[in-house]
Amino acid sequence: MSESALQRPPVDAPDPLPPDFRPGAELIRLCPWKMSFILLGIALGLGLTDFLLQATVHPGERMPLAFLAAITFPQYVVLVPFVPAVLFLADRFPMGPGRWRRSLPAHALASLAFVFVYGAAAVAVCDYLLAPLTMPTEQLPRGYNDYVFGLRRVVAVYGVLWIGLYWLIVGAHHTLFYLRRALQRDHEAADLALRALRLEAGLAQANLHALNMQLQPHFLFNTLNAISVLAAKGERVETVRMIGRLGELLRMSLGNTAQTVSLSRELEFAQRYLDIEQVRFHDRMAVRFDVAPDTLGAQVPSMILQPLVENAVKHGLSRKRGAGRIEVRSRRAVHTLELSVRDDGPGFGGAPAGGRTGVGLVNTRARLEQLYGADGFELYRGDAPGGGALVRITLPLRVGSADEDAPAVPVIALEAV
Question: What is the pTM of this model?
C-alpha cells in the first residue's frame, strides 16, 4: 500500500463542528428562503386557528370577518421577523452546563422585552393600522383607538403565551444544536471506524499479496532446480516434459489473482505440481487423493496445498530410500473443512533441525492468520501414526460452487505410481 493511500483513506471526511458553531445563524444562512416560507406558513396556520376561534367563540357579537382577519392573521405574521432575533439571542447566550448563571437571567429579561416589543408591533399593525380599514372608527370596539390601552390589553391577555413562545423558540434552538452535535459525533465515530476497517483490510490485502509473491518464486526455484538436475543427467525427454508441465502450472498460477478458490481448483493446481515431480521420481512416488465430494465447492486459500505437497516431496520422499507415498485428504464437518497432506518419509522427528519448517509452512501459517485471524484456524504438523509426516489444516467452512472447468477429482483416486 502506498504512503499516499495510508495518509488519505478513500473516505470523505465529515465537516467538523467549529467551536463557535451557531445553529440559529447556520440555519438562516443555509436556507433563508426556505426558513422564511416555513415560518410564514406556521404564522398563517396559527392566524387561521385564532381567526376560527374568534369567529366561533363569540358568534353573538357579529364582528365582520374582515375585522377578525385584520386582528388575527397579521398578529402572527408580525412574529416572523422576531424569530431570527430570538435565535440570535439563543446563539449568543447558549443554555448548558456551566452557562446557566449567565444565560438564564439574559433570556428571562429578553423574554419580557420580547413581550413588550412584539406586543407593540402587533398592536400597531393590527389595532392601529389594519382594524380601522375594515369598519368605521366609531364602530370599533373599545381600545382599538387607544394605542396605550391596546398595548396593555394584549400584554395582559397574551403576555404569558408570548413568554412561552419565546422559550419554545429557544428550546427548539437548543434541541437542534444538541441533535446536530450528537449526529455529528455519531457520523465521525462511524467514519473513523470505516477508515480503520478499510485501512486494516488494505494492509491485510498487501500482506497477503506479499506472502503470495514470496511463495511463487519458492516453488518455481525448486522446480527449476529439478529441471536442471534432469538436464545435467542428459534426460532430454523428461526435461522437455517437465518444462511443458511447468508452463501449464505457471499459466494457472498467473491467471489466478483471487485470495480464495474452490477446493476443486486448488486440487487441480496441486495435481499439476505433482505431475512435474512425477517426471523426476518416476515410479518412486505414489500419490493418492482422498477427497470427499461434498468438499469440492468449499472455498480455500489459493495455493494452500501446493507448499504442503512440496514439503512432503522435498523433506519426505527425497530423504527416503525406495518408493514413497503422498496422500492428500479432505473432509467436511458441520462448520469446518479439514485438509491434510501425509507422506511416509522420515517425519518431523527424523528430519534435521529446522528442516521441515522452512518457507512453505511458515508462509502457510502467516497467510492463514491474515485470512482467518490467529484463532480462526488450526494448523497441526507432526509425525503421522505409523510413520511419516502429517500436516493438517482446519478451516471455517465457506461453501461456494465447484468450478465448472476444473476437473473432477475422484473420491479415493489418483494414485500416480
Answer: 0.48
